[in-house]
Amino acid sequence: MASSIHKIHFLDQMKSTGILPVFHHTHTTVLFQVLRTLNRGGMSVLEFKHTRDQRSVRAFAQLIELASEFPGFTFGAGTVLDAALAHQYIKAGAQFISSPFLHKEVASICEDYNVMWMPGCSTRDEVEEAIRLNAKVINIVQGNVPALDVLMQCARDFSDRYFIPSAGIELDKHNVPLLFEAGALCLRMGDSLFHRNNILTKDWTRMEINFYQTMKNMRRIKHSATVTHDYFVLA
Predict the structure, then answer these.
(1) DSSP of 80-122
(2) Sign (positive or negative) of CA dihedral 83, 20, 47, 6
(3) Which stretches within the chain are classed as H helix?
(4) How many Cα atoms occupy the beta-carbon half-sphere of 103 within 13 Å?
(5) Which 8-state DSSP code applies to residue 187?
(6) Phi, psi dihedrals of residue 162, rounded to the nearest 5°
(7) Burial status of residue 74 (CB atoms within 10 A of its CB: 0-12, 13-18, 19 or more)
(8) Entry pTM
């Protein structure tokens, strides 16, 4: 079961780095190298992306076993679509569950196990519903209303909650500073942290260098943004 310590650790890492690493792989060697890269870079949070395949749950269980060599990690499962899958990941060791949409049954099972639930919302109304269901961290996904507008409004109006831009939102040179200025807790990053070429060629050194550089750039952008929320002052 997750504890308040894991939740605090997750939030502290996201505030300080501006990055939520997201990764999926089923090979133990690759998972180990990713953990080592994160550990050396001072990052100890990872969201494991589910890919609608039972192999994903088994790979996540392997990841938890590998983590014994890197104490202090907080692991979560992402793209979790229903309560049954959430239960499998929680039993395998997930300390937070992230979904691309609002799912009351997933909220309930996370509450039962004291695991942080991070639902996906595309409107203010959905955000309000997520808050009623006790979500502390909410994914803002692209919908009919521009995600940046939803993020800005909700970060302003619900200052006791945290918001992460998610599915369908581009992370380019122009957009990233705007997202932080609007009130983003952090940004999800996957392939840009762990390049597929480096994994295919097993160039772990290059993967580490890219990770460090990306992390350095994100910290610089995040801490140069000015956000006026009481809970989230970056400059």
Answers:
(1) --SHHHHHHHHHHT-SEEE-SS--HHHHHHHHHHT-EEE-EES
(2) negative
(3) 4-17, 28-40, 54-66, 83-92, 104-113, 124-132, 147-157, 175-182, 196-200, 204-224
(4) 21
(5) E
(6) -120, 145
(7) buried
(8) 0.89
- What the chain holds in terms of domains, given with CATH numbers, is 4-224 (3.20.20.70)
Specify the amino acid at residue 139.
N
Q: How far apart are CA 83 and CA 145, in angstroms?
A: 27
The residue count of the chain comes to 235
CA pair distance 41, 149, nearest whole angstrom: 33
Sheet holding 120-121, edge to edge: 120-121, 137-140, 162-165
Digits of tens for pLDDT over the chain (235 positions)?
A: 455 767 888 888 888 888 999 999 999 999 999 999 998 888 889 999 999 778 899 999 999 999 888 888 899 999 999 999 999 999 999 999 999 999 999 999 999 999 999 999 999 999 999 999 999 999 999 888 888 899 999 999 999 999 999 866 667 777 888 899 999 999 998 888 898 999 999 999 999 998 888 888 888 888 777 443 333 332 2
